[in-house]
Amino acid sequence: MKKHEKLLQKKYKKAYLELSNGVTLEGSAIGADVTVSGEMVFNTGMLGYSEAMSDPSYLGQILVFSFCLIGNYGIPAPKGGDFFMTKGHESNSIKAQGIIVSDIYDGCHHYDGGMSLEEWMLENNVPGIAGIDTRYLVQMIRENGNLFGRIVSESAKKEKLNKFKFLNNFTEDEYVDPSKYNLMPSVSTKEIQKFGKGSKKVAVIDCGAKLTISRMLAERGCEVLLLPWDTDFSKIDADGWIISNGPGDPQNTGDLVERIRKDVLGSGKPVFGLCLGHQILALAAGAKTKRLAHGHRSHNQPVFSLPDKHAYMTSQNHRYAVDKKTIQPGWELWFENANDESVEGLKHKTKPYMSVQFHTENDTSWVMDEFVNLLKK
Questions:
Q1: Residues 210-261: tens digit of each pLDDT
Q2: I want to staple 27 with a disulfide (CB 3.0 to 4.6 A). Which of 132, 159, 206, 242 is the partner?
Q3: What are 138-147's pLDDT values in tens digits?
Q4: CATH annotation of 3-181
Q5: What residue ranges of the chain are covered by domains with CATH 3.50.30.20?
Q6: Cα separation of 45 and 359, whole Å?
Q7: Burial of 99 per CB tally in 10 Å (0-12, 13-18, 19+)
Q8: pLDDT confidence of 154, banded at 50, 70, 90?
């Protein structure tokens, strides 16, 4: 049966979002007919839904889009043979557990060709619900702090969706909290990969790295080594290090923090922590992290650069932050969140170590330039 015929058969089938606070919301089933559970999070972007859904930072999460229409230009077609694929994909598959939308467009008008959003969900065996008041749901997520959910359609197969290693022991009646698990084995590359060409070699520790990180380095004339999270870093020859973005609790990453403290910071080479990598770098430097009451979930998080007194709008998805009171001597605050004054970036005063909590695209791409300049020095 062709994909569009499956879509026609599924129209108007009911689906339910069962929330851990006892609320149940009803809508129409979209995507795959499977039952999933995960942490409830949201995204405020009008665009970039394919990037968000394929971003490994959303592993184990049910992603709510607050904008009224999602899928309005379709999904760009992945191009084979190129690691970076088509822009619009941050990994080779959907990483979110499921999605919740107010309305979904079932066509594709992308200039690169491709498929509709729902066809992509079917291809990846990912479910969702349309027809829910997502702005109301976002308010509920904000008010509850820690909210978890299950997507169940009236025709769903009674099977758990455990395509990720950390869900192997998931039971059907459980609300999945991904922060309870070490998610690194589920998102990290299984072998060392090499991309780009250049005189400077950057080792990227893959904690759930977006493809954009390697793409930005390659565009700046760097050779990239993408490393599994459990690599023996002492055996890697590189001019600099990046600790990537990723999902989950930075304190629940096995022995990664200790190995970074010993072999990465111990190397004296330039180090750049991004998102989860920022938190892991701070832990390796002796600081502590804490769980935020609400987290930062949007394309429009304002951050303030303390040295140059400039504000920037950034994209973020995280629940944890570095505890400002525990920043160690020798380190200084680089960026601060303009809403809640939480830590958004750190720099070492004398060593080539730096980190930011946000994604370094668009307005803040200059931060990646600054890291590459450290390599050249």
A1: 999 999 999 999 999 999 999 999 999 999 999 999 999 999 999 999 999 9
A2: 132
A3: 999 988 878 9
A4: 3.50.30.20
A5: 3-181
A6: 14
A7: buried
A8: confident
Class of 185-376 in CATH: alpha beta
Band of pLDDT at residue 17, cut at 50, 70 and 90: very high
Query: Pick from 23, 358, 330: which is nearest to 210 by CA?
Result: 358
Lowest-confidence segment of 166-170, 260-264, 293-297 by average pLDDT = 166-170
| Both tokens assigned to 174 | 């459980």
Distance of CA 133 to the CA centre of its chain: 24
CB hemisphere CA count around 333 (13 angstroms): 18
The CA-based angle 119-124-130, given to 5 degrees, is 55
Comparing CA positions, the residue from 68, 87, 76, 80 lying closest to residue 116 is 76
Residue 361 annotated in active site: yes
Which helix or strand (DSSP H or E) is residue 343 part of? Answer: strand 343-348
- Selected catalytic residue, list 108, 223, 275, 336: 275
**In the chain, which residues fall in CATH 3.40.50.880?**
185-376
Enumerate the H helices of the chain as residue ranges: 3-10, 49-54, 117-123, 134-144, 184-187, 211-219, 256-259, 276-284, 366-376
Residue 108 among the catalytic residues: no
Contacts of 308 (CB under 8 A, 6+ apart): none
- For the chain, give the mean pLDDT: 90
Known catalytic membership, residue 310: no
Q: What angle do CA 328, 357, 175 make, to 5 degrees?
A: 110
Neighbours of 27 (CB within 10 A): 21
| Residue 157 or residue 288, greater confidence | 288
